[in-house]
Amino acid sequence: METKIDEIADGIFRLSTFTPDLPPDGFTFNQYLIKAEQPLLFHCGGRGLFPLVSAAAGKVLPLNTIRWISFGHVESDECGSMNQWLSVAPQAEIVHGAVACMVSLNDLADRAPRVLANNEVLDLGGKRVRYIDTPHVPHAWESGLIFEETTKTLFTGDLFTQMGRGPAISDQSIVKAAIMAEDAFHAMALTPDTAPTIRRLKDLGAENLAVMHGSCFRGGCGAELEALAAYASKALKAALSNAD
User: Fold this and answer.
1) Cis omega (within 30 of 0) on the bond before 196?
2) Nearest-10 Cα torsion for 167, 56, 67, 107
3) What is the C-alpha separation between 103 and 147, in angstroms, rounded?
4) Where does residue 124 rank: exposed (0-12), middle (13-18), buried (19+ CB within 10 A)?
5) Backbone angles phi, psi at 92, to 5 degrees
6) I need a surface site. Which of 78, 101, 211, 243 has the fewest CB within 10 A?
């Protein structure tokens, strides 16, 4: 395996590792480096991938300059290696929402995390990151996403997960591939708040979607989010109907 580096927007670097042995068609694990005066890493990756991913990140910037580390929610592929990153980036702090810090990160992280309020903006110096609470979307109580305002890049976490191996970024819709993955994995938490939460993300005016598993997207992000929200609403109705 190797970790590939692609700049998907100005100063936004995708570090992608394709794992061919995961069924049915292999799976990508993506981390993102935001290059700024105070660099931010979004997604850490699992502990086993740390040597590959950190070596790739070191080609973008010195690891000891990373100032902030965040991720969508507390899960191995999102933050399994966070303490390894903290060890090579001595000035770095974990940043996440109040729930994640309260229920997990205050205990799991080797250094105390910084709590971000919903819609709080972190000024990185040249880049501005807005934190957004998205509880249970796509899953996990503590879920949250970030939006980089200068490049209009929404980091979607597990939303828009795709199977297989595609291009680093595409201007072709990724919704169909994301629905295929959801129909296979059933990873999304379907609640009455799922579709409305996804729809609220349209208000950000994103022009890029930085996806954790699969290809990123550049173009009409509002339409992509609306299509995924519509799918979630339809899937919830079907689930409730089957329950009856």
Assistant:
1) no
2) 90
3) 23
4) buried
5) -75, 145
6) 243
CA 2 and chain centroid, separation: 20
Answer whether 104's CB lies under 8 Å from 142's CB. Answer: yes
Tell the residue number behind the tokens 């502990």, with chain if given.
47
CA–CA distance, 189 with 168 (Å, rounded to integer): 27
Instruction: Please report which helix (H) or strand (E) contains residue 125, including its range.
Output: none
- Number of residues written out for the chain: 244
Which residues touch 101 (CB under 8 Å, ≥6 apart)? 113, 115
pTM, full prediction: 0.97
Contacts of 153 (CB under 8 A, 6+ apart): 8, 9, 12, 147, 206, 207, 208, 209, 210
Please say whether the beta carbons of 166 and 213 come within 8 A: no
Please report, in tens digits, the pLDDT of each residue of the chain (244 residues total).
899 999 999 999 999 999 999 878 899 999 999 999 999 999 999 999 999 999 999 999 999 999 999 999 999 999 999 999 999 999 999 999 999 999 999 999 999 999 999 999 999 999 999 999 999 999 999 999 999 999 999 999 999 999 999 999 999 999 999 999 999 999 999 999 999 999 999 999 999 999 999 999 999 999 999 999 999 999 999 999 887 6
Question: Alpha helices, DSSP H only, in 130-185?
Answer: 175-185
